[in-house]
C-alpha cells in the first residue's frame, strides 16, 4: 500500500498552509478585516462608547479582551467563506485526485486563520497600548493569555471550517457566521452583565464568551478569575473537539458524492 | 480478471437519489490510446470520470486504472492519474507559476524538479508571458491551459479530460487539441469526454457513445460511421409538398419536409446521382440543389440514440454540385 509517509503528510500540510496564507494576503476583504477592523473597533469602543460605560476601571483596560474575541470571530468568519469557496469550485476535485493527505486543505485554512487572528490580536494590543491600555500581567500571565487565545482561535477556526463545509454556497457560509459574531455582545465583553435584565443576564453569564473574557481580563488586569479559567478551557476544548469531529465527518460526506 | 487495459471497467453502476446515472458501463482503454466518451448532457460521462479518478465510489461493478482498483487501491490510482475536470480546477488567487509549483509540491517532487517542470510546461503551453499574473485575470482559454498544465506536472500515466474544450472559443479549442495530440505522442493514455462529435473524431482512437448511463456503441469513428451506410446525397427540392413522394420513390434514408430535403444512400458514383436525378425529373419533382455527404458522427449519434430529426449541426458536405 502506498500510504503517505509522515514527511509527505507534513509537506502536504505545509503546502496547503502556504496556499491559504497567500489567499489571506491577496484578498483585500480578508486583509481589511484583519487589519482595519481591529483598529476601528478599538477606537470605536474606547472613544465613542467607552465614556458612557461604567466598569470601575479605565474602559480601555476593560474592553481589550472583548475586542480581541470579536476580531477573532470576524477572522474565523472569513475562514468559513474560504472553505465554502474551495468546496464549491473544481479545485477540491483536483486536490482529491492527487496522492496527498486529504485533510491537508483544511489544516491549511485553520493555520492561516489562526495566523490571521494572531496578527489582528497583536494589532489590537498595540493600538490599545496607544489608547492607554496598561495591563498588570507578568510573563506567566501573558503566556497563559496566549495559550487561552490560541485555544479559542483554534476552536473558532475549526468551527468556521465546519460551517464552511455545511454551507452549500459561499453566501450561505458568510450567513452562518453571523451568529458567532453576535455572541460577544451578549456577554461581559463590553459591559458588565450586572446591568442586563435578569433573563439576558442569565444567558450572558452562562454562554462561553463570558468565562473566556473573565479569564483574559483576570490574567491581564489581576481581577479574580475564579472558576472562569476552567470553564473557559472546557468550553473552548469542547468546541474544538466537536468542531474537528464535525468537520472531518462533513468533509467525508461532501467529498464522497 | 482486469485484462491488460490501462483503464478498465465492468458493470459500473451509480445512482443518485434513486435515479440511475450509470447502468452497467463496460469500457477498456489500452495503453497509449485515446478513448472519447461521447454523449449528451446527463449521459453519465462526468460520473464515469469521477469514479475512475477515485472521487466517488461506484454502487456496483469494478474499475481499474493502471492495474489498480479505484476503490481498494485509490491511493495508488491517484499516483498514476491526473484529472482536468469540467470546472477549471485552478487556484485563482495564485499565478500560473505558483499553481504549477503547488502541484509539484503536492506530487512530492524535489523542489528543483518541480521548478524545472513548471518552467517546461509554461513554455510548452505558451504561458510563459502570463506566468506571473494571477489566474483570476485570465481568459477562459488561458485558464484551461493552466488547468491542463497542472494535470501534466506529475507526468501522469493516465489523463482524464472531462469536456476539455467546453466553453472555449475556436482558437483556444484548437490549442487544446494540439496539446492533447502532443500528449498522445508522449504515450499518455487519455480518456476524454465530449459532447462534440468533431472533437471525438479528431482526437480519439476509439469512441464510446454513452447515453442514459449505457454504452451504446464502441469503435473507431470509421467503424461507427460504416454502421449506418456509405455516402449519402442530400437533395433540396423546390416544393416541400414533393418531399414524401420523392422519399418514397427513392427509398430515402430520411425526408424532412420543413427543410425541403431528402437523403438517399449512394455508392458515391456520378452515375448513381444521375440516375436519381433522372427518376425525379420523370416524376416531375424539381430539384433545387444537391450535395454529397459522408456520414458524420452526428448521423451515427442520432441513429444510435434514436434522437431523430435531422437538425444536428456540424455536417460538412464532402462535395457539392448544382
The number of domains of chain A: 1
First-last Cα distance of chain B: 57 Å
CATH class of the largest domain in chain B: Alpha Beta
Secondary structural class of chain A: mainly alpha
Question: Spans of chain B with pLDDT under 50 lasting ≥5 residues?
Answer: 308-322
Q: Shape of chain B, please?
A: elongated
N- to C-terminal separation of chain A?
Answer: 24 Å
Give the amount of beta strand of chain A, in percent.
under 5%
> How would you classify the helix and strand content of chain B by structural class?
alpha/beta
Order of helices and strands of chain A: HHHHHHHHHH
Output mean pLDDT of chain B.
85
Largest sheet entry of chain B: 6 strands, mixed
SSE order of chain B: EEEHEEHEHHHEHEHEEHEHEEHEHE
Quick tags:
heterodimer, A: 257 residues, mainly alpha, B: 322 residues, alpha/beta, Rossmann fold, Alpha-Beta Plaits, 2 domains, 6-stranded mixed beta sheet, 5-stranded antiparallel beta sheet, 15 strands, disordered C terminus
Concise synopsis of the structure shown:
The complex is a heterodimer of chains A (257) and B (322). Chain A has 257 residues and is an all-alpha fold.
Describe the model.
The complex is a heterodimer of chains A (257) and B (322). Chain A is an all-alpha fold. Chain A has helices spanning 6-26, 28-49, 59-88, 91-96, 104-130, 139-166, 170-182, 198-206, 209-221, 228-254. In chain A, 76% of the residues lie in helices and 0% in strands. The relative contact order of chain A is 0.14. Chain B folds into 2 domains: 7-219, P-loop containing nucleotide triphosphate hydrolases (Rossmann fold, 3-Layer(aba) Sandwich); 228-321, 2-Layer Sandwich (Alpha-Beta Plaits). Chain B is 35% helix and 27% strand. Chain B has a 6-stranded mixed beta sheet with strand order 6-7-8-3-9-10, with helices on both faces. A 5-stranded antiparallel beta sheet of chain B has the order 12-13-11-14-15, with helices on one face. In chain B, helix 3 (96-106) crosses helix 4 (111-124). The longest helix of chain B is centred in the middle third of the chain and has 16 residues, at 170-185. Chain B is elongated and about 80 Å long. The termini of chain B are far apart. In chain B, 43% of the residues are buried. Classes of the chains: A mainly alpha (257), B alpha/beta (322). Chain A binds chain B through residues 1-4, 8, 11-12, 15, 18-19, 22-23, 26-27, 89-91, 93-100, 255-257, and chain B through 16, 50, 53-57, 73, 75-76, 78-79, 81-83, 85-91, 93-94, 98, 102-103, 105-108, 134, 150, 154.
